[in-house]
Specification:
The protein is an alpha+beta fold. It has three helices and twelve strands, in the order H-H-H-E-E-E-E-E-E-E-E-E-E-E-E. The protein has a single domain, classed as Jelly Rolls, CATH 2.60.120. It starts with a helix and ends in an 11-residue tail after the last strand.
Length: 176
């Protein structure tokens, strides 16, 4: 058996085995790169809202967004990871004060944070597959002004998201 053929077999086996893809992302809620206990508490009590809503975020907040088809979500910019046209997506808006914001979600969704007409680069990412009540947490550095949060590629018609300010000395976790 040639080396390229063996490599292809190994890749195929890994793709077809769910454990291979998730091995690095297990260990429970304590494996996030930063504490998420407060976010989990907010997520557990999230009120349901429609996609497109404007939020008040002067205090930590969590909402459960009723998603729509991505093609109808009204994204400000195209998602950086294109979703299937019928995959659920949603949009939230809020007014930011300059600083690092943490977005923690209950599901495996793609998040784009848009400010001044551009999708921002994440400042940090952390995700765990086996944490009850939270799947991923992403940090973005925001300027003063309006922000649009775009969620796409959702596996469900609703997803909850907590939006909190991060302490100035908070660890950033892994950048992708």
């Amino acid at each position: 058996m040639t080396a390229p053929f063996r490599n292809r077999l190994a890749v195929m086996a890994c793709v077809m085995t769910p454990l291979c893809a998730s091995a690095a992302e297990t260990g429970g809620c304590g494996k996030f790169a930063w504490p998420i206990d407060a976010d989990k508490a907010l997520l557990a009590a999230a009120e349901q809202i429609e996609s497109g809503a404007a939020l008040e975020t002067k205090t930590p907040k969590a909402v459960r967004i009723v998603m729509v088809d991505a093609a109808k979500a009204g994204f400000e910019v195209p998602p950086s990871r294109p979703p299937a046209p019928d995959a659920p997506g949603g949009v939230l808006r809020f007014e930011a004060e300059a600083g690092v914001y943490q977005f923690t979600m209950t599901d495996r969704v793609w998040i784009d944070v848009v400010q001044n007409g551009k999708a921002l680069e994440e400042a940090g990412f952390s995700g765990v597959l086996d944490c009850d009540g939270a799947r991923k947490s992403v940090r973005f550095e925001l300027d003063d002004g309006p922000v649009t949060v775009q969620l796409s590629g959702s596996p469900a018609r609703t997803t909850a998201i907590a939006i909190t300010r991060s302490p100035k000395d908070a660890p950033m976790g892994a950048a992708r």
